Amino acid sequence: MKLKDISINNLRRRKGKVFFLILGLTIGITTVISLISISRLMNEDIANKLDEYGANILVLPRSDDLSLSYGGMSIGGVSLDARTLNDSDIPKIREIEVRENINIVSPKFVGVVEIEGKKIPLMGVQFQEEGRLKKWWKIHGALPKNRDEALLGNEVAVRLFKSTNDHLTINGRKVRISGILEETGSQDDFLIYADLSFVQEALNKPKAVSLIEVSAYCNTCPIEEIVDQISKKLPHAKVTAIKQTLQTKMEALDHFKKFSIGISVIVLLIGALIVFTNMMASVNERKREIGIFRAIGFRKSHIMRIIFLEALIVGLIAGVTGYLLGLGISHFIGPMALGMKSVRWVIDPSLAIGAIFLSTLIGVLSSVYPALHASKMDPTEALRAL
What we know:
The protein is built from 13 helices and 14 strands. The protein has 2 domains: 3-48 and 251-385, no CATH class; 56-241, no CATH class. Helix 2 crosses helix 10, helix 2 (15-51) packs across helix 11 (349-366) and helix 8 runs parallel beside helix 12. With 386 residues, it is of the alpha+beta class. The strands form 3 sheets. Strands 1, 5, 6, 7, 8, 9, 10, 11, 13 and 14 form a 10-stranded mixed beta sheet that branches. A two-stranded antiparallel sheet has the order 2-3.
């Protein structure tokens, strides 16, 4: 009889105890796979939400003249007639090699106009892109939809005593106030927003652009590569990653990873302890059997291999079962935890192999001491019991 047959027959003979042994290890692997899968879903969900929450790359004209603060950064080119960006630079950003990582491209042109004897900063934007970029905006009224409408920051509306549906005259051009921003506590409160082409014409700077804000997907975060490729496309521009935004994103994702790892380690230790306890109990129960094997000529290595084969079989079964259960549980709990309607089922071969390998590894390592203990048993104890 081969050693594997002895191991299989022993497992068959102890079906009840083997079931609980597999169950203990399966619970551990199921928990780990569930946490990893749910963590991935959470990471993707958070990353996607953070990626849509504001710009993380700023494209500025190359200039030594810094004349305006925007978004906590000093930007140049606003007060210069030359060395500005151009409308033709906007589509070039979406032509880079990793363009699939580009989410929003929002160009802006900034100037100062005099309205009712007061000097007010005027910013030209593409409202469709700006609305997607600044999801935190709360507007009394509506976002402008055409060239004849404008959006006022809260402080500007107070200074000019204007409200929704009132009219403004900007350099001889009349516009309707379609909406007023709720107070944001940022530079947005002090600006008048109007259509980009309208502002370019009103300030006699056709096609000029002061800066371009870019929101790039940062789940895999090739931010340096994106910055480098945009810089090559726009050699006359200074491309900067807003590191504070990126750092916040990566820290949020890192917290979830650390939490998942911590819980996984604890559960795996519990699973290993269950295997160790059960294998040790099995060895103690089989003293007479092991002693007989030793008495009829089985070597210590043979006894150890029998124990290890049993642990290996248990680990394989628990690994496959744990992976399938973990995948199923994560796809039921994940959407509920994240408020998602549905999640696409994805079979990850590397995760499946990892689960099986981890399960078998825990099973074998947890059986090392019981196997050594069994191999050192004195065959005379079995003979006395006969």
